[in-house]
């Protein structure tokens, strides 16, 4: 299996080496083709093909640097029941998450925005503003599982890799238009930027979010948290969004709409519940 996968990658790279796009060929098509030819990795559990041009070591170093900066810039909560709960939940889920060599760190930031994030290498941050929506350990486990899933699936490296290709595409178009500068070139470059954002970057981000939901559900279940509680959290989060005017249209958002997210969780729930029952029986 390893030899087959490596051979497939070599074939894809040779194909890419022979690919020569015409000067004004649609760059979104070119970027999509390049991604297909270079997709030599697969996401865990789901098997989705991924483009990864950043090594795990480089990715982890970037995550560590960014996390250190955040801890210097934002106030951190180190004591109290909320901080203790974060360590408890984070510790349990990190034990079942397949992320070799991770240097796990869970930090509670004093920030009223309802947000959480994961950086490469096992760095997880949670804002105090999301705790009224998580309400309890199971709700927090939903959030932590989702964020750890981003780290396990290397979504950060995937996003960086996509961005690298988009930048290369933009540079290629700029060179192709070099003989005809001016307003027309500016308009085409602006259209390329918008097209790449809506056509490539945002859809991939929504795919990653749904993938993190699925993996996170499995991780919280394997850690002994009832995955059915995740529906309650996302329902509360949807209500929170609705009170504040709702979310932007899905095609302009990096996150899937709340109802679509809940429907996707319902589809994977039977498997997650089975994982939860196995964890309880151990």
Element order, helices and strands? HHEEHEHEEEHHHHHH
Q: So what's the overall shape? A: globular
| Count of DSSP H/I helices | 10
Strand order of the largest sheet: 3-4-6-5
Average pLDDT = 76
* Secondary structural class: alpha+beta
* pLDDT < 50 stretches: 1-25, 183-194
User: Approximately how much beta-strand content do the residues carry?
Assistant: 5-15%
Number of strands: 6
Residues in helices, as a percent range: 55-70%
CA gyration radius, whole angstroms: 21 Å
List the helices and strands and how they pair.
Elements: H1 2-18, H2 27-38, E1 41-42, E2 49-50, H3 56-73, E3 76-77, H4 81-96, E4 105-109, E5 116-119, E6 123-127, H5 131-134, H6 137-152, H7 155-176, H8 183-222, H9 229-243, H10 258-281
Parallel strand pairs: 4-6
Antiparallel strand pairs: 1-2, 3-4, 5-6
Task: Characterise the protein shown here.
The chain is an alpha+beta fold. It is 65% helix and 7% strand. The chain has helices at 2-18, 27-38, 56-73, 81-96, 131-134, 137-152, 155-176, 183-222, 229-243, 258-281, and strands spanning 41-42, 49-50, 76-77, 105-109, 116-119, 123-127. It has a four-stranded mixed beta sheet with strand order 3-4-6-5. Strand 1 and strand 2 (49-50) form a beta hairpin. Helix 2 crosses helix 7 (155-176), helix 2 runs parallel beside helix 8 (183-222) and helix 9 (229-243) runs antiparallel to helix 10. The radius of gyration is 21 Å and the shape is globular. The model is unreliable at 1-25 and 183-194 (pLDDT under 50).
């Amino acid at each position: 299996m390893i030899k087959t996968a490596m051979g497939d990658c070599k074939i894809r790279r040779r194909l890419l080496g022979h690919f020569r796009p015409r000067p004004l060929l649609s760059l979104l098509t070119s970027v999509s083709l390049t991604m297909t030819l270079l997709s030599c990795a697969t996401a865990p559990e789901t098997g989705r093909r991924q483009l990864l041009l950043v090594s795990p070591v480089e990715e982890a170093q970037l995550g560590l640097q960014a996390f250190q900066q955040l801890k210097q810039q934002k106030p951190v909560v180190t004591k109290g029941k909320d901080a203790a709960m974060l360590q408890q939940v984070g510790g349990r889920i990190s034990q079942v998450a397949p992320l070799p060599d991770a240097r796990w760190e869970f930090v509670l930031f004093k920030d009223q925005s309802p947000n959480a994030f994961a950086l490469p290498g096992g760095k997880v941050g949670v804002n105090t503003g999301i705790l009224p929506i998580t309400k309890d350990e199971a709700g927090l486990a939903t959030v932590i599982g989702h964020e750890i899933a981003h780290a396990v699936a290397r979504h950060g490296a995937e996003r960086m890799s996509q961005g690298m290709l988009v930048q290369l595409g933009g540079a290629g178009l700029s060179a192709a238009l070099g003989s005809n500068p001016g307003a027309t070139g500016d308009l085409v470059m602006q259209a390329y930027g918008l097209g790449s954002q809506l056509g490539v970057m945002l859809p991939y981000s929504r795919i990653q979010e749904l993938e993190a939901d699925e993996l996170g559900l499995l991780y919280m279940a394997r850690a002994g948290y009832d995955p059915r509680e995740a529906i309650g959290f996302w329902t509360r989060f949807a209500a929170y969004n609705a009170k504040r005017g709702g979310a932007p249209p899905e095609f302009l958002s990096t996150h899937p709409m709340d109802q679509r997210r809940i429907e996707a969780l319902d589809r994977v729930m039977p498997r997650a519940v089975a994982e939860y029952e196995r964890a309880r029986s151990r």
